């Protein structure tokens, strides 16, 4: 096996942590600005449905911009533990890389959420964007909402990545997908789809209501989507590398390590 395949790619992990932190800082700031008490946006856009639509679009746009940025070029811009998990299940990441990604995603989420305290009362009025069950919805319904939205996200992501004509447009998927999902589902669970996204503001706000839903729901949603993908019921989904953009850039051999291993085996055989 190639020497690089057993090393921790620290610059890649740092880029992933930074990208995750920036997504939470920007995305949750949009949440606070669009829904926080005292925000002028409440007067400009009194319709909460329209504000959810815009917030989801802006949150998704932030993730898409990270994907095409230098940070995303280096790390692949997973920005979500279940995305990393899904790539790992599909055999596109080594286990130690998967574990490292998930650790830095949670760390980045925590650090990226700390500056939200600067929003003061406006931020605290919405628990700094923490995801909590909507009023009147049972835990089972909230869990189901996270399963369905996360499953839709993984299916959409893998659909784009598996089609050569679409994969260059993968970052454009997220603004529109999250605009729709947040508009429709946010009143139920908050539309997390990302355990790290829920962890950051919960840590800052000290709000842990049904916290396990936002870990288990996205995980089950990813597994559901992967089961559909592996069944080929929706067609063949063949993802080449665990990146959302800049597919060939891989100076630390994180995403093309299988090719490197194959070259080593071939050299040994010869």
What this model shows, in words?
This protein has one domain: Glycerol uptake facilitator protein (Up-down Bundle), CATH 1.20.1080. The chain has 12 helices and no strands. Helix 1 runs parallel beside helix 6. The longest helix is centred in the first third of the chain and has 26 residues. The radius of gyration is 19 Å and the shape is globular.
| CATH-scheme architecture | Up-down Bundle
CATH topology call: Glycerol uptake facilitator protein
Text of the CATH class: Mainly Alpha
Strand content: under 5%
Largest sheet: none
> CA-to-CA gap between the ends?
15 Å
Please give the number of β-strands. 0
Summed up, the helix count is 12
Element string (H = helix, E = strand) = HHHHHHHHHHHH
Residue share in helices? 55-70%
Runs with pLDDT <50, length 5+?
1-6
Structural class: mainly alpha
What's the pLDDT, averaged over the residues? 94
């Amino acid at each position: 096996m190639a020497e690089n395949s057993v090393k921790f790619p620290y610059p890649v992990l740092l880029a992933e942590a930074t990208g995750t932190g920036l997504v939470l800082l920007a995305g949750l700031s949009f949440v606070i600005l669009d829904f926080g008490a005292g925000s002028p946006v409440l007067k400009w856009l009194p319709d909460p449905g329209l504000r959810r639509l815009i917030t989801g679009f802006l949150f998704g746009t932030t993730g898409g911009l990270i994907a095409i940025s230098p940070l995303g070029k280096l790390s692949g811009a997973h920005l979500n533990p279940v995305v990393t998990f899904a790539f790992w299940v599909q055999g596109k990441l080594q286990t130690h890389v998967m574990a490292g990604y998930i650790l830095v995603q949670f760390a980045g989420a925590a650090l990226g959420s700390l500056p939200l305290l600067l929003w003061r009362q406006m931020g605290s009025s919405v628990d700094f964007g923490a995801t909590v069950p909507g009023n009147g919805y049972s835990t089972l319904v909230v869990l189901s909402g996270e399963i369905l939205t996360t499953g839709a996200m993984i299916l959409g992501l893998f659909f784009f990545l598996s089609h050569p004509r679409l994969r260059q447009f993968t970052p454009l998927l997220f603004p529109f997908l999250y605009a729709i999902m947040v508009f429709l589902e946010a009143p139920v669970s908050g539309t997390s789809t990302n355990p790290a996204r829920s962890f950051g503001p919960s840590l800052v706000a000290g709000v842990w209501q049904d916290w396990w839903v936002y870990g288990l729901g996205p995980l089950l949603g990813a597994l559901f989507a992967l089961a559909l993908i592996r069944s080929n019921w929706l067609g063949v989904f063949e993802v080449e590398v665990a990146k959302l953009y800049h597919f060939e850039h891989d100076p630390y051999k994180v995403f093309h390590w299988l090719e490197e291993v194959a070259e080593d085996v071939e050299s040994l055989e010869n």
